[in-house]
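Morning!

As promised:
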Amino acid sequence: MADATINEPITSRVGDILVQAPPRELERVPLVGNQRSPGWISDAIAGVAEGKTPLWWWAAFLPSVVMMTVCFSMIMYLMSVGVGVWGPSLPAMWGWAIVNFVWWIGIGHAGTLISAILFLLRQKWRTSINRAAEAMTIFAVMCAGIFPLIHVGRIWFGWWLFPIPNQEGIWPQFRSPLMWDVFAVSTYFTVSLLFWYMGLIPDLAVMRDRAKSKLRKFGYGLFSLGWTGSNRHWSNYEKAYLILAGLSTPLVLSVHSIVSMDFSVSQVPGWHTTIFPPYFVAGAVFSGFGMVLSLLVPLRKVLKLEDIITLRHVELMCKVTLATGSIVGYAYAMEFFIAWYSGNPNERFEFINRATGNYAWAYWTMITCNVIVPQFFWFKKVRTNMLVVFILSILVNVGMWFERFVIVVISLSKEYIPASWGYFRPTWVDILTFLGTFGLFFTFFLLFIRFLPIIAISEVKGVTPQADPHHPLGGAKTGGHH
Amino acid sequence: MAAVPQTYGIIAEFETPAAVMHAAEKVRDSGFRKWDVFTPFPVHGMDKAMGLKNSRVGWFSFIGGVTGYTCGMLMIWWMNAVDYPIVIGGKPMFSPFAAFPPSYELTILLGSFGSLLGMLFLNRLPRLHHPLLKHRRFALATHDRFFLVIETADPKYAEAETRKLLESTGSTRIEMVEE
């Protein structure tokens, strides 16, 4: 009889229902902890945006608004005085504006990877984090979009970027990758917004049905578009969601590829390489996951959502960070190898200069944060220690900012002619504008936490056993695990 | 002159997805047409249980995508090669390769609009009013309950028999919904 007890699957009891555990080899940590019910999930997630505004929210919101004001003041100053208030001058004519642009837009990429690519790959764990990550994408792209617009100098001619003829009847030049970038970034922002909003529709209906005040009923009612949860609607909705995921996947890969072409189509040593598109996309996902971790690790604790964003979710995100971080490390090595193997003296000089020149401090910060730091995620002890994960995720983003700094500034500072070499220094306006964009980002993100469901309620319900009509918790008479 | 409230349909409440799915199979087999199931999340297998065909959203997306790509290519060709050609570095006035990235982005942009707007069009959304949204139990459809509604407008609808059918599915609560 001893054998029988060993092979006996462990059962658990939820209410009056006995649930047979799957055989050992199929056992996995459940996506929603403590076998929480769909009703509990609604209450926990929607509850975040209901009731009295907590003190910590104000403590975070007010400084964010101040920083946002700083950002806009710096932009006003730039517009009234001119781009001379910034650091860029010959030879490095691209400075922090481009670094910040690429950094912010790269952060956005994790949101789309989570919402689209992981959806196509049937990674159900994405449901707990996709909403917040998509919101992060949208706000990050907003921060990113500011920089190309203001770095043109004469901002009032920004409309030259749109496909309309200027005052001389001349059209924009589509042979320039900068025009491709305009289309890529604006499409990326629009499609991310559509995808995010579509995912929100059923959850806004949840908020509408829970709303107590007239104003909330009206607001959520208006934006939920009269959603009823009809299965005929769900059928079209799921198909549209799948198609949007299918469209966003090539989109997100194309956006950072096109951003990288802003560099690689030029002939600057250090920029003119074919590895740039995949290398930029991997770096973007790497930094984006770093940001998702920096945001969600504290949030799950503060908002008591540990049963929905479980340790397993955090671990999986750490593993993606590790994988993409390793790709980035490989790309750094490959850049060096190709610089030597190409036999091009300018390329060789550029890379030796990166590692040993005036900016070696920036280069080695990048290597430490992007190549060494993610390797700690090999260890389960590290992945399950929230404080360490939080610190490492911030280092990842520091490193990725320096990667863009290395690419943009070092490459331009020492180009072909030694007579025009220089050393770039940012001004206080550069620094405050960049810090100000964090204010913009966090102002929007905190408003999102306060007014919208920060986790996809209906999707999380959909991955619980209670939602499965073939599971005893879903009402099935027989059967159990899948 | 308050008119007598008309009946929109009969609503049956269920507690589990399995229960509402079995009920849907029964209602489908009885040949009803104007009926629907309301769930807090899409229930896997419900389309089959209701006898729904594959959604047509894909067509809207496809048309959007084709429009985007064609318009992008034509726009760039006309702007840079026809209306105001400028020689730059000896490059051709129009090259499909340089024109591809913006056209590709427009394909995705209009394809996405096609998919979202197509979904809303097929669902006849947005709508500001629905008789079910006034029903007092129906708010639970976005929480944790499952509902099956048969409209009075269905040709097979007959109050006593339809109610009997729904009772036989094991619904915990059957009520009429006013228009």
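The longest helix of chain B spans residues 57-83.

Hope this helps with the figure draft.
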